Amino acid sequence: MSKIAVIYWSGTGNTQQMAEAIANQAHADLFTASEFTADKAANYDAFAFGCSAMGAEQLERRRVDGHLEARQRGAEYRRYGHLAGRAG
């Protein structure tokens, strides 16, 4: 079974409620955006990101890039880590 992280930011609590429901149904770990670090990314196989959006707001790319880059590094470690004597 895949290990899943649901990472969210909520301004009013609506996104938090949705993230909690999704994490519950997916048997996933739940984190706020400030709780989830790049170090934690290597421990997960999949991610769900959530944030509020009102009107013409857009998700700030700089907030997502760090998580995506950490995930990619974690996947590369798991793929090639055994060459250094470590299973990922």
Main β sheet profile:
3 strands, parallel
Number of alpha- plus pi-helical segments: 3
Unreliable segments (pLDDT under 50, ≥5 consecutive)? 76-88
Helical fraction? 40-55%
N- to C-terminal separation? 15 Å
What order do the helices and strands follow?
Answer: EHEHEH
Structure classification: alpha/beta
Strand content: 15-25%
Q: Going across the major beta sheet, what is the strand order?
A: 2-1-3
What radius of gyration results from the CA coordinates?
15 Å
**Would you report the number of β strands?**
3
Estimate the global geometry from the Cα principal axes.
globular
**Overall residue-averaged pLDDT value:** 76
Please characterize this protein's 3D structure.
The protein is of the alpha/beta class and about 90 residues long. The protein contains 3 helices and 3 strands. It has helices at about 15-25, 40, 60-80, and strands at about 5-10, 30, 45-50. It has a 3-stranded parallel sheet, with helices on one face. Strand 1 (about 5-10), helix 1 and strand 2 (about 30) form a beta-alpha-beta unit. The two termini are about 15 Å apart.
